[in-house]
Amino acid sequence: MSAREMVLARVRRALADVPREETPDQVPVVRDYLASHSPADPVGMLAEHLADYRALVHHTDEAGLPALIGGLLTARGARSVVVPQGLPAAWTAVDGVRQVPDTAELTAAELDAVDSVVTGCAVAIAETGTIVLDGGPAQGRRRITLVPDHHVVVVRAPEQVVDSVGQALPRLVPGRPLTWISGPSATSDIELDRVEGVHGPRTLEVVLVRG
């Protein structure tokens, strides 16, 4: 018996007592599991998990945000930065750094030549250290966060931080292009050697803005 036949046989055994005419919507599913484990400090947990994933985490307030982002771009040696629609102009107004608007005409090759990208986010998940982008204001199209090698993402804390995936999902629209980010892009080969920057930015910097 092949592996496929074994799996199908187990499925048939599991469904043996289910009437053929029964449909999934006729059987209520109990969803009484916890939506969150209620961490004492969700923002602190998010920062800790992001650091575990080798993201660089920074803290600031609203007034200090433009200077912090400018310092990150300068320290990176960035000469150009992708700017999505809706991103406050002051965030990327850095001397010597060319602003590249996110437009439909911007090609992958042109994006590859850009040094950095700065975006906002839709929501951040403390328990998994995950940041979700949905293409909304200040987030831009999906490709602008996958091609440039350096991504700075701004998370407003605590209003954009939730405890769990279960709390994040109601904030998201399934029909939108969702990008789930847990640290910089990384993968491992068959010998478990870690390689970064394969299918996304090699460097992820997260700015947590309080207040």
UniProtKB/TrEMBL annotation:
- UniProt-listed InterPro entries: FTHF_cligase-like_sf, LUD_dom, NagB/RpiA_transferase-like
Organism the protein comes from? Streptomyces xiamenensis
| All residue ranges annotated as the LUD domain in the record | 102-209
UniProt-recorded name of the protein:
Lactate utilization protein B/C
Taxonomic superkingdom: Bacteria
